[in-house]
């Protein structure tokens, strides 16, 4: 079979596979599921899932905060009328289970055989405004939950159906915004917070940013390829290969039923910049061979022979950098690592099937730069190589000082995350959430399960007193701004049975009083607030609340203090407790981040070590290769420490990915060096020849990588911004180390020939 016929057959097969991939890509959907960021396989996650089946999910709510117009308080009749209209609108909306609002809260009272709900507010009776406001601000659980402390804002707490998806969530938000608009409430006077808001905003922005990043990456890579090759095919062919790899990678995702989320949205951009590397190495070598007068077929044969080995190894190490993310217990990171790693391997396959087929079918290109003028890159690289040799002591000293400073600064990096870490501080959504932290109880949920011991139930007086002690600690020491538990229920019922007076809002004084009260609890047990706080049989209860989003470092300290208090100050024979909830699970991710990162880096280092040992059978060469790739990682860790950038879910992937990508050029360099040493036994000449041969591709691919990752700096997500910035910096420092430290370390430490000969040749830099 002729080569041209083989090329046509290859293009047909690749075209059919691409069509199949396009079909599955069409099935992809954007999604942001808060639950996906829980640590998969963790015992606490299993426990929490059982807890939610008993008591409900702690983040199935939507907060709507409304500020009173300037010069008014929340007790103004016209303001309360608008709030009441919004309340009725929310209650009628699909997927709404219940609404707690200033105009619906009531003070239950039991008189004789009758049960009455007395409203706290009487908008139609202005004379009662002072009395109403006084009662509200003296009643526990209302201020900070429904009313702001300064009486300038109120909140509607809208309970939604479990695990509300984006389309119905968007519909609910649109309904409420429409109602606010019809009531002439200015946009600056209302605020939303909750799962539905984050889900809606994140998915919409993912779609927009993916389009922006891809457009910027195409423009950037096109410009750099044109600057490098100055031919249309030198631009178009790499773009075709990389776009094909992205299509295949996304097709595998679609076929696996995976959605595009905050992490996997980075796959196309990652592939666009990473996947270009092999094509640049292939075309650079191909053009060099053509420039030396080789025929098209001979140039292609030499190129595939010399580039295939290095590209295969670099694809392996780069994909491993992504595959090691599969050690993460966080599903979005796991999926991102898996499918990006697969896409890297697919890019390698296309680079050595699609690209050669296209080059073979194209006519032999007419090089725009004449042969005798085609050594501009050689001249630049030759001068750079001589400068590196002459300044070798300075390079070693500066590298050592920078490394020492970076290690010192890296110790300042802390693992810390908050609920809305991925949004910048001035983002409108984050400002809305900050409003609820400033004016109300906050948005961070708190959950503690209560299990009576010794044959008691949740309404046992000793159990209630223990629960009340815990509530007091949580309010006074822990920082909980709002709390509800079975104690709340019992106090509320006691108050209702005693005329609704605030002085009666307390636990029964003795078991006899409690026994009389328990018989009345049955009147209220069907109310939703009872079902949410205690099981019908009284076998377990729930202490729930909200607080400020203090960040995981502070939360870990608070939780440790709480656990210590529960161990030392509660009687476990009376009441057992367990901290749970969505916030607790998100905080637990931090315990795994460092371990996952160290595991991923260790796997990468072991694989690179094995590759270098297989190539050179030299431990010294292994150390020589690792140093220029670990130094940039440590420098960027120092930059993080200096800038105060915390380690969190989104930034934890940086070092593993950066090392996997940065080592790519090193693998290309040493694989070419190994080939060169096959016919050039002189180490100095072999290193110099490899430097001139691989230097152009190293610089060009690094520029493409740094430029491609710099497009992520336009993201509105802080995590994506820092991924672009820090990986870009790592690769930038990496190419500097590649062109300075790597050749010096090889010449000084790799035992390929007698050291005296190397020293003699270093004394007189060669042309």
UniProtKB/TrEMBL annotation:
One of its GO terms (cellular component) is plasma membrane. The chain crosses the membrane at residues 210-229, 236-260, 266-287, 308-330, 336-362, 394-415, 593-616, 623-643, 649-670, 691-715, 721-750. It is a multi-pass membrane protein. Pfam families: MMPL (PF03176). InterPro entries: MMPL_dom (IPR004869), Mycobact_MmpL (IPR050545), SSD (IPR000731). This is MMPL family transporter. Residues 239-361 form the SSD domain. It is found in: Cell membrane. Keywords: Cell membrane, Membrane, Transmembrane, Transmembrane helix. The lineage of its organism: Bacteria, Pseudomonadati, Bacteroidota, Cytophagia, Cytophagales. The keyword Transmembrane applies. PROSITE patterns: SSD (PS50156).
């Amino acid at each position: 079979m002729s080569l041209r016929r083989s090329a046509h057959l290859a293009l047909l097969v690749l075209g059919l596979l691409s069509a199949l991939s396009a079909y599955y890509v069409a099935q992809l959907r954007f999604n942001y599921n808060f639950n996906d960021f829980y640590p998969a396989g963790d015992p606490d996650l299993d426990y929490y899932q059982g807890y939610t089946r008993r008591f409900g999910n702690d983040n199935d709510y939507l907060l709507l905060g409304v500020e009173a117009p300037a010069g008014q308080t929340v007790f103004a009749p016209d303001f309360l009328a608008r709030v009441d209209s919004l309340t009725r609108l929310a209650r009628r909306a699909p997927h709404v289970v219940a609404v707690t609002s200033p105009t619906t809260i009531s003070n239950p009272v039991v008189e004789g055989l009758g049960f009455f709900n007395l409203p706290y507010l009487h908008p139609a009776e202005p004379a009662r405004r002072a009395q109403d406001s006084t009662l509200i601000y003296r009643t526990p659980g209302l201020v900070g939950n429904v009313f702001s402390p300064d009486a300038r804002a109120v909140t509607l707490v809208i309970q939604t159906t479990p695990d509300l998806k984006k389309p119905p969530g968007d519909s609910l938000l649109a309904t409420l915004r429409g109602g606010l608009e019809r009531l002439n409430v200015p946009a600056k006077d209302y605020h939303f917070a909750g799962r539905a808001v984050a889900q809606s905003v994140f998915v919409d922005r993912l779609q927009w940013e993916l389009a922006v990043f891809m457009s910027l990456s195409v423009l950037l890579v096109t410009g750099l390829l044109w600057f490098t090759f100055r031919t249309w095919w030198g631009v178009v062919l790499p773009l075709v290969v990389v776009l094909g790899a992205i299509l295949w990678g996304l097709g595998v995702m679609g076929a696996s039923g995976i959605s595009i989320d905050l992490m996997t949205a980075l796959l196309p951009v990652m592939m666009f910049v990473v996947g270009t590397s092999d094509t640049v190495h292939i075309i650079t070598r191909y053009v060099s061979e053509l420039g030396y007068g080789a025929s098209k077929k001979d140039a292609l044969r030499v190129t595939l022979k010399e580039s295939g080995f290095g590209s295969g190894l670099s694809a392996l190490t780069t994909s491993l950098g992504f595959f090691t993310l599969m050690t993460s217990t966080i599903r979005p990171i796991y999926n991102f690592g898996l499918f990006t790693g697969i896409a890297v391997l697919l890019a390698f396959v296309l680079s050595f099937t699609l690209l050669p087929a296209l080059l073979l079918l194209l006519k032999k290109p007419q090089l725009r730069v004449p042969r005798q003028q085609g050594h501009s890159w050689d001249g630049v690289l030759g001068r750079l190589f001589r400068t590196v040799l002459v300044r070798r002591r300075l390079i070693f000293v500066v590298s050592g000082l920078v490394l020492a400073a970076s290690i010192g600064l890296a110790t300042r990096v802390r693992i810390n995350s908050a609920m809305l870490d991925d949004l910048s501080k001035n983002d409108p959504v984050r400002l809305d959430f900050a409003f609820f932290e400033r004016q109300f109880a906050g948005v961070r949920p708190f959950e503690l399960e209560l299990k009576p011991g010794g044959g008691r139930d949740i309404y046992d007086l000793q159990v209630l007193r223990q629960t009340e002690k815990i509530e007091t600690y949580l309010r006074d020491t822990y920082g909980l701004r709002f709390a509800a538990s079975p104690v709340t229920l019992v106090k509320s019922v006691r108050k209702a049975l005693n005329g609704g007076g605030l002085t009666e809002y307390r636990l029964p004084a003795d078991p006899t009083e409690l026994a009389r009260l328990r018989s009345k609890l049955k009147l209220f047990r069907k109310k939703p607030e009872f079902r949410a706080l205690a099981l019908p049989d009284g076998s377990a209860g729930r202490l729930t609340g909200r607080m400020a989003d203090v960040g995981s470092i502070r939360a870990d300290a608070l939780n440790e203090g709480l656990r210590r208090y529960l161990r030392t100050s509660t009687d476990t024979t009376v009441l057992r407790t367990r901290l749970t909830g969505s916030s607790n699970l998100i905080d637990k991710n931090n315990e795994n981040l460092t371990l996952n990162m160290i595991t991923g880096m260790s796997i990468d280092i072991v694989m690179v070590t094995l590759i270098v040992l297989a190539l050179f059978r030299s431990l010294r060469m292994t150390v020589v290769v690792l140093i220029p790739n670990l130094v940039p990682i440590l420098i960027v860790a120092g930059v993080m420490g200096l800038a105060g950038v915390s380690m969190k879910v989104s930034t934890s992937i940086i070092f593993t990915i950066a090392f996997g990508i940065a080592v790519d050029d090193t693998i290309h360099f040493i694989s070419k060096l190994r080939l060169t040493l096959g016919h050039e036994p002189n180490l100095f000449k072999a290193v110099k020849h490899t430097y001139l041969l691989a230097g152009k591709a190293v610089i060009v691919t690094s520029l493409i990588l740094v430029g491609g990752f710099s497009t992520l700096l336009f993201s509105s997500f802080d995590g994506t911004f820092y991924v672009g910035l820090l990986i870009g910096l790592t690769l930038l420092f990496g190419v500097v180390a590649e062109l300075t430290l790597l050749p010096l370390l090889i010449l000084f430490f790799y035992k390929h020939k007698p050291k005296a000969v190397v020293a003699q040749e270093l004394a007189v830099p060669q042309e």
